[in-house]
Task: inverse folding
């Protein structure tokens, strides 16, 4: 973003919503662009239902995501750059869901009784299809969801164990959508796209996920078949009660998040000795750190540097697995060489394969005009989510392979816009732009309508059910949620990155007050210079080139420029407090991400609850 | 002022100086001055200078009198010794502190009222004794604490915030100090951080009384049109007479300079001041020419800044009095108080 600057640093264009959006790292990192700081503030004020609804507007499933989200926001969190752990953004979302009002029906979108006459077929009742229905029902569409299983939820139901995501949480949030009047047809697998297309729907959305677990074809696979399971298929059998037990000694092959669910589920089905066998060292694990920690807390052993070689069969039964022991040569975080140092047989009763999954479309005829690439993956437009057959859309894992729930939700939002435009013969690419409002948070001389004082508290750790109580059944939720005291501390850890430092160069008298008070030395006043020179003038060296750099227009008195390294700012407001002329102001940025309903020629409704008191770049 | 404290935030890659301290270790308590006050800017320059020189805070004594300026020692070097004296009496206390412990690095912060009105006599004698200290005058031309009356430093003809025109001629700290035989006289501006930090460093290391007059706009009472001490006026009439580089003892002079265009002044600790004339022909070691130059520029309304006069050879107080090399605090009680017999002997020698 910054490499293409002209040789002389131009003043930053802060009217481009991307600039301030990027400063709100969590919101920028979230695929659905949830306004994290705003909902954390609402939680801080005890407005749990408001926080919940605000979440729901962008991520649709706050209760679910508050437990099992992949949390791209947390590694991005600014708090993590102050030698501390990020704010527990994900678990605070759960707080909003846990404490929301029991009946929120009056806060949900209004569904018009008079329909618009357009019928949409959605295949698979997972998070992507549900999001599309959630966005289209309020516009007046008639949506039919076809689900092969007996219950809706897709991967959220079949692959995420209920000790992490209780069934009632799942049901509630799915019901909010189904109760909008969605025609949900369970036990209704679609076996032919051709037949479905012939039924005359105005558009078809494919949200069937990535349901095919990867196979590991090693010697003994056939013979030991009864005790060798494909991870996601096995989790589904457990979720629907078909699989009720497993052997005492279980090996999990692979070390992604599915592997973590498999090992922890095994413990609840009677396994006593569970080992996760990893091919590579820990730095190369695919599982999220927190999922690894939760598994290790339950005494799951994770063994690194073991590559599977064969399934060991005796008397026609699986008795163990042979591994090559591998040592790696690593340079700059990359594996550059490997060496087998030995072999070992690890005895076991069952093996669960969790080495990845693919999307699979045996039910889509290849002569319909829906193109597939060489890996049998459909060709899908990354903006419109349309396939090569107009009117057929893909989203979630079925579009671009396995990602996560929050990505599927964003796919759903975008696909809904495309479907809406498709049904009205409008260009799919003429989408509304993201809009931004800035509103001052100044209340008085030294008063800001946000909690600006920097709180050095460490991240709160969520309580878990005691180990001795955990394994009795499948449904005891391990995480207990935050206590009110923990919530109180954790919300204050949020740095309010959405309260932007907005600079008015024409007001500045160059007194240096902001520069001197800044606790992170992120401000510099310097003669206008070429980029390289200018970076050399910074008070604190620039450490993160991914983060934006603000350069003001020239200052009146000395013709210097004000430069701000956004990477370092903790949004404490001291620059604005110290400014004698209000050249710095703290302004809340709100972004409006258009949804399907906004493409009706009405102004966007997205997040404009904050917009009421806000006007474009006002002082 | 602000009400929330400047938080201490651990960011990776913060720079430490030679003795392992961060810049924030040289800061003081939260400033209660008006937002945008020049004094806060000078405070930050002092923090910067002491940090760069790697001086242990506990080796420093900071002194002041009364006034907005005299509040500022609270805002830097929390770990230093300090004394907040009666109005205008900072130099007396500094003299005593110097006499008692000559190893202390002494910084006095005063204002135009504190030094040029009520403490004018004290100011003169600190200069005359060449007390080894850095004497900063934070000069805003008004009495800010009592709502903006003209001070003795206000220029004749300048306008107060309520519209009065000053009828009195001003006392100029710089020419007064030079005429009284000062060994180091400089002027700077709170809005020129680079120059200010250099001059503070030079003043700290100068072996004698370093007078540093700093134009420091009062944002509340003296930053309007018609003021001659505002940010705008000072920047419009800013006139550096040459440029000074401070070179620490261990470093070599890296810049090349033409003979005759620069002067090098060596200080007693081995550090050097490189005075660049910048084409003006200004020579800070030639007292009579300096006085003439200052008078010319004053008549034009220019604010001449930089190291304006220096004579590093002038002996400071302890050398004139030939006092003990050992600080008085380190002398044994017997040596300091040799008893009545020794007194009688001394008195006998005087009869």
Result:
């Amino acid at each position: 973003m910054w490499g293409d600057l002209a040789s002389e640093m131009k003043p930053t264009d802060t009217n481009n919503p991307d600039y301030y959006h990027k400063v709100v790292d969590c919101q920028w990192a979230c695929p659905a662009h949830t306004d994290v700081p705003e909902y954390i503030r609402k939680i801080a004020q005890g407005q749990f239902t408001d926080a919940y609804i605000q979440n729901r507007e962008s991520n649709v499933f706050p209760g679910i995501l508050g437990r099992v989200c992949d949390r791209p926001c947390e590694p991005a969190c600014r708090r993590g750059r102050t030698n501390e752990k990020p704010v527990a953004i994900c678990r605070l979302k759960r707080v909003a869901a846990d404490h929301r009002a029991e009946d929120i029906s009056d806060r949900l979108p209004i569904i018009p009784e008079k329909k618009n006459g357009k019928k949409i077929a959605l295949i698979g009742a997972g998070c992507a299809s549900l999001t599309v229905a959630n966005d289209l029902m309020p516009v007046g569409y008639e949506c039919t969801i076809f689900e092969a299983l007996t219950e809706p939820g897709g991967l959220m139901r079949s692959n995420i164990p209920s000790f992490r995501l209780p069934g009632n949480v799942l049901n509630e949030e799915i019901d909010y959508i189904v109760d909008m009047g969605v025609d949900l047809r369970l036990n209704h697998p679609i076996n032919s796209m051709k037949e479905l297309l012939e039924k005359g729907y105005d558009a078809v959305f494919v949200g069937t996920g990535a349901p095919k677990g990867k196979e590991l074809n090693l010697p003994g696979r056939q013979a030991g078949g009864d005790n060798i399971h494909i991870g996601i298929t096995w989790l589904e059998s457990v979720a629907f009660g078909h699989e009720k037990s497993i052997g005492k000694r279980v090996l999990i092959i692979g070390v992604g998040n599915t592997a973590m669910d498999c090992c922890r589920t095994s413990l609840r089905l009677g396994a006593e000795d569970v080992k996760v066998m990893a091919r590579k060292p820990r730095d190369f694990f695919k599982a999220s750190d927190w999922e690894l920690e939760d598994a290790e807390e339950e005494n799951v052993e994770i063994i690194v540097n073991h590559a599977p070689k064969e399934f060991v069969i005796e008397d026609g039964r699986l008795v163990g697995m042979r591994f090559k022991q591998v040592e790696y040569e690593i340079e700059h975080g990359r594996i550059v060489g490997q060496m087998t140092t030995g072999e070992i047989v690890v005895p076991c009763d069952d093996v669960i394969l969790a080495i990845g999954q693919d999307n699979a479309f045996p039910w889509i005829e290849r002569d319909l005009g829906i193109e597939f690439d060489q890996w049998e993956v459909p060709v899908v437009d990354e903006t419109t989510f349309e396939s090569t057959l107009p009117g057929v859309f893909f989203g979630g894992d079925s579009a671009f392979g396995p990602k996560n729930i929050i990505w599927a939700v964003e796919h759903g939002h975008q696909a809904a816009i495309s479907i809406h435009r498709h049904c009205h013969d409008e260009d799919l690419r003429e989408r509304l732009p993201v809009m931004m409002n800035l509103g001052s948070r100044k209340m008085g001389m030294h008063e800001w309508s946000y909690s600006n004082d920097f709180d050095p508290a460490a991240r709160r750790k969520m309580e878990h059910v005691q180990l001795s109580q955990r394994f009795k059944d499948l449904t005891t939720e391990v995480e207990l949620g935050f206590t009110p005291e923990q919530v109180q501390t954790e919300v204050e850890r949020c740095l309010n990155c959405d309260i932007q430092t907005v600079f008015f160069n024409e007001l500045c008298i160059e007194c240096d007050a902001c520069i001197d008070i800044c606790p992170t030395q992120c401000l510099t006043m310097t003669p206008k210079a070429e980029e390289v020179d200018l970076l050399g003038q910074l008070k604190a060296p620039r450490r993160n080139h991914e983060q934006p750099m603000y350069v003001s227009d020239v200052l009146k008195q000395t013709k210097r420029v004000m430069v701000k390294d956004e990477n370092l700012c903790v949004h404490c407001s001291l620059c604005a407090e110290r400014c004698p002329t209000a050249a710095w102001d703290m302004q809340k940025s709100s972004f409006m991400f258009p949804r399907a309903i906004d493409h009706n020629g009405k102004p966007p409704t997205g997040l404009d609850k904050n917009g009421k008191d806000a006007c474009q770049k006002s002082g | 002022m602000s009400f929330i404290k400047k938080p201490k935030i651990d960011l990776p890659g913060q720079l430490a100086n030679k003795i392992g301290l961060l810049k924030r270790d040289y800061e003081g308590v939260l400033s209660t001055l008006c937002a945008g006050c020049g004094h806060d800017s000078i405070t930050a320059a002092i923090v910067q200078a002491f940090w760069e020189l790697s001086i242990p805070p506990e080796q420093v004594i900071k002194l002041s009198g009364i006034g907005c300026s005299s509040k500022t020692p609270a805002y830097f070097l929390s770990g230093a010794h300090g004394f907040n004296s009666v109005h205008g009496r900072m130099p007396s206390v500094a003299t005593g502190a110097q006499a008692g412990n000559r190893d202390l690095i002494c910084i006095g912060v005063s204002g135009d009222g504190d030094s040029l009105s009520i403490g004018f006599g004290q100011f003169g004698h600190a200069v005359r004794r060449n007390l080894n200290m850095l004497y900063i005058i934070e000069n805003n031309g008004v009495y800010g604490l009592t709502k903006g009356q003209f001070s003795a430093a206000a220029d004749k003809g300048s306008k107060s915030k309520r519209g009065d025109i000053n009828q009195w001629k001003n006392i100029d700290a710089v020419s007064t100090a030079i005429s009284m035989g000062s060994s180091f006289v400089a002027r700077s501006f709170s809005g020129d951080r680079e120059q200010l930090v250099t001059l503070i460093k030079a003043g700290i290391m100068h072996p004698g009384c370093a007078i540093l007059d700093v134009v420091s706009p009062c944002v509340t009472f003296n930053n309007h049109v018609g003021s001659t001490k505002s940010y705008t006026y000072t920047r419009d009439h800013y006139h550096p007479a040459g440029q000074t580089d401070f070179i620490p003892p261990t470093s070599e002079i890296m810049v090349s300079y033409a003979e005759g265009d620069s002067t090098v002044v060596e200080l007693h600790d081995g550090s050097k001041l490189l005075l660049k004339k910048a084409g003006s022909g200004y020579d800070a070691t030639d007292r009579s020419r300096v006085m003439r130059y200052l008078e010319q520029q004053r008549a034009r309304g220019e604010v001449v800044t930089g190291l304006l006069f220096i004579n590093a050879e002038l002996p400071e107080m302890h050398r004139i009095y030939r006092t003990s090399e050992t600080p008085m605090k380190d002398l044994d009680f017997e040596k300091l108080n040799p008893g009545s017999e020794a007194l009688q002997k001394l008195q006998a020698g005087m009869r």
Residues 24 and 498 of chain A are 5 Å apart (CA to CA). Residues 1-7, 602-619 of chain A have pLDDT under 50 and may be disordered.
